[in-house]
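re: that chain from earlier
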Amino acid sequence: MEAAHVRAIRCDGRRGVGKSARPLSGRAHRRAGGRLMARDNASELARRLARDAEAVCRHYLSNGRRQGRYWTVGDVRNTPGRSMFVRLSGPESAPGAAGHWRDAASAEHGDLLDVIRESCGFTSFRDVANEARRFLSLPRPELENEPDRIRSRTSPAPLGSPEAARRLFGMSQSIAGTLVEAYLRNRGITALHETGSLRFHPRCYYRPDDHSPTETWPAMIAAVTDLNGHLTGAHRTWLDPGGFSETTLGKALIDTPKRAMGDLLGQAVRFGIAGEVMAAGEGIETMLSLRCALPTMPMVAALSAAHLSAILLPDTLRRLYIARDNDPAGDGAMATLIDRAQEVGIEPIVISPRLGDFNEDLRLLGFDALRAASRVQIAARDVARFMELAA
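^ sequence. v structure.
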């Protein structure tokens, strides 16, 4: 009998895998509960997960460990042991691709979507996809299962509404190889894992005021989501198509190169999945800079001091790192957030930059200085847990 391939049962509603299970046909793969499913959707999610293969393994296969270019564990259900190995690096497709795994004991094999399915016990692809999007900080596609003809007849969304934010994010593309990636790297940010909440729009509308004509500029689009991963808003950073300069730091030469839309209060731009520990701060670039030093710590960007003081805290949270900006507004947000955290039994720990914010520290003082300063400000038990990849 043919060895089981866990991916083959993504859509057939059965639990478990076994050596008698046969792979489904390509057509069957595209059906879930009798409805057509976009195969590209699964492929794209698998590719995104593979780009952060080690982070996926640390989260869903926590009983394993890294050994060279592989993650080893007992099986796809996170049993302790060493018979299953996951490739942590490699091409996006073909044999030897990152994220592909094989269990030497059972002959099971698959990709990281299969890891999520089996380790979490899901029985439908929809649940697997939603969990993958949550891990990648991607919003749920609210209209994913609606026929194209219904989408095409959708009326225009109110300006600045959550629906307008969802449509803007949906029209944007991955940041890989775009001006957004160049912008972030020019600001010293090289840790771009788990940045599915960021996208690129090549011609994003910008209107200086109600009486001015509409302009178009390339922009970084950030998804603002609630604790359940639902997109409630979007943040736009318009970029200079001419590139980076120390004067503009890569932002467009317009009056307000950063604007937000939608329902923002309590929500945030998210990088990673918050568990017992999370860091929260104001700006996207600020938090991504800190993440260069603490690469596996989940973080959120609230987009302003006022919104930072009002972010909703996950029920799982036990320790909150507050990444303050070095100004009066940052001090006020820090004080409010400390009080709120303590009221619900969460330990607040403040991390402070040496300059104005953590991106300034990264750009002007360098990565080593940022890492050293972060190391002495976090709890000793979190050093190995969240700084390992930055070593």
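The first strand starts at residue 31 and ends at 32.
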